[in-house]
From TrEMBL:
Family named by the database record: Belongs to the binding-protein-dependent transport system permease family.
Disordered: annotated span: 1-20
Principal subcellular localization: membrane
Source species of the chain: Streptomyces avidinii
UniProt protein name: Alpha-glucoside transport system permease protein
Compartments where located: Cell membrane
InterPro entries, A to Z: MetI-like (IPR000515), MetI-like_sf (IPR035906), UgpAE/MalFG_permease (IPR050809)
Transmembrane segments: 37-58, 96-116, 128-149, 327-348, 369-387, 427-448
Pfam families registered for this protein in UniProt: BPD_transp_1 (PF00528)
Membrane topology per record: Multi-pass membrane protein
SUPFAM superfamilies on file: Cna protein B-type domain, MetI-like
Domain ABC transmembrane type-1: 92-447
Basic and acidic residues bias (residue ranges): 1-16
Length: 456
């Protein structure tokens, strides 16, 4: 009987164990089905990732171990060439400038604008306007800023503004193209100054004829040239355009139809010092008075002939990299502002109100509450911009003119130029691409870990 009960108990226990295993087996089967289904959906993405990312990376690394033609194995020779090539080292230096300056400025601007937009009435419209450049491709943005940075003020909007402000506070040269006619009593080189060949004593007058002034460059107030009568203690004369309409006049003589040149500075010089100075009238006449008896040289100083101010050489060797970074800021400021603004909206308002109730100023709230609470968002924005800056290519290639391209190159443009832009050394170009990848990967890993921690 005992044996029968024992067998019965064992059968019951086996039945219970089987019943307990059935749900577990079902769950395992369900998990397997989910994994298989996930693999089915992920497989196309993995194939694309392998074809477009993994294979090119492996191929580039293998190609970097061969020479320019790809026939001879050189090992680490291309990587050694990177640190020995001055142009490549300059590109690395420029990339370092980009990585330090651009993300820092963008994060700061984004934070400042995100805070300010919370205090304006039309915050949504303001954000939309700042975000609009993100809809513009780098190619279009590069063309826009290439035109804006033109040296010619008639074409470059930035230099037009700079020249306008400069000319508002400083007088422009009266006649930058004027020059003396040879053999007519004036000596000097192009651009001035021009002086009388001989000396002049008080009580005498001189005629200073110039050429090279276009008719439309003569001021509208100019009148027919007429010499001023000298005083007994001074020198009189006239500064005029020694060119009659149709070329009918006699050089060195005031003819009918020849106009005076108003606004021309005239000086009387003795022993290397300016004894008297005046400005010519509308008819070109002038009087230098208060002169002691003696011999003087009448001079037209170089300020009359200085070339007009042409503004800032934005695309010169010294400023080309900051100028391109400025274009990059224009495109990406809206991106930083929107991301930081989203983080700012998630800050608990109770903490801010409590700080205000405790008497904290807005500056203290910003430094000690807002910024610390936003630090995770600021870090993500900064690292994302670092990754993007590492790969910048379009703006540098389009904005930098050919003569200063080498001064503006970053790693991406240098890689392209070495491989396809005339260098035809795909071994060195592949090595540069591998270096660029190795520089970007740590920032990407940091960002991914940051996202995972914030998601957890």
């Amino acid at each position: 009987m005992a044996d029968t009960m024992t067998a019965r108990d064992r059968a019951r226990d086996r039945a219970r164990a089987g019943a307990a295993r059935a749900p577990a087996d079902g769950r395992r089967l369900a998990r397997r089905r989910k994994r298989r289904l996930a693999v089915v959906f992920v497989l196309p993405a993995l194939l694309l990732l392998g074809a477009l990312v993994v294979y090119p990376v492996l191929f580039s690394f293998g190609r970097s171990l061969f020479d320019a033609d790809g026939d001879r194995f050189v090992g680490a020779g291309n990587y050694v060439a990177i640190v020995q090539d001055p142009a490549t080292l300059k590109a690395i230096r420029n990339s370092a400038i980009w990585v330090v300056v651009a993300p820092t400025l963008l994060t700061g601007l984004g934070l400042m604008l995100a805070v300010l937009t919370e205090k304006v009435r039309w915050a949504t419209a303001f954000k939309l306007v700042l975000f609009l450049p993100m809809a513009v491709s780098f190619l279009a943005a590069g063309i826009i800023f290439r035109l804006a940075y033109e040296q010619d003020p008639d074409r470059g909007v930035l230099n037009a503004a700079v020249v306008g402000v400069h000319d508002s506070f400083g007088d422009a040269a009266a006649y930058p193209t004027a020059r003396a006619r040879e053999g007519q009593g004036l000596t000097g080189s192009a651009g001035g100054p021009y002086s009388t060949e001989g000396t002049v004593r008080p009580g005498r007058s001189v005629s200073l004829g110039l050429i090279g002034v276009a008719p439309d460059a003569v001021p509208a107030a100019a009148k027919a040239a007429a010499a001023a009568a000298p005083a007994t203690d001074g020198i009189g004369g006239v500064v005029y355009l020694d060119f009659a309409p149709g070329g009918a006049g006699v050089p060195g003589r005031i003819d009918a139809g020849e106009n005076g040149l108003p606004g021309m500075t005239v000086e009387a010089v003795r022993d290397g010092r300016v004894a008297a100075s005046t400005v010519s009238a509308d008819d070109g006449s002038f009087r230098l008075t208060g002169l002691a008896d003696g011999d003087y040289t009448v001079r037209l100083p170089a300020a009359n002939f200085a070339a007009p101010y042409q503004g800032v050489n934005w695309l010169g060797p010294a400023l080309v990299t900051p100028a391109i970074i400025g274009a990059y800021l224009w495109v990406w400021t809206g991106f930083a502002m929107v991301l930081i603004g989203a983080g700012l909206a998630a800050i608990p308002r109770d903490a801010l109100e409590a700080a205000r109730m405790d008497g904290a100023s807005e500056g203290q709230i910003f430094r000690k509450i807002t910024v610390p609470l936003l630090s995770p968002v600021l870090t993500v924005v900064f690292v994302t911009l670092v990754i993007n800056v590492m790969k910048v290519f379009d703006l540098v290639y389009i904005i930098a003119p050919g003569p200063v391209q080498e001064e503006a190159n970053v790693l991406a443009t240098r890689m392209w130029l070495v491989s396809f832009g005339g260098g035809n050394d795909q071994g060195l170009g592949s090595a540069l691409s591998v270096v660029l990848l190795l520089l970007v990967v740590p920032a990407m890993v940091f960002n991914i870990r940051r996202f995972r921690r914030s998601g957890a």
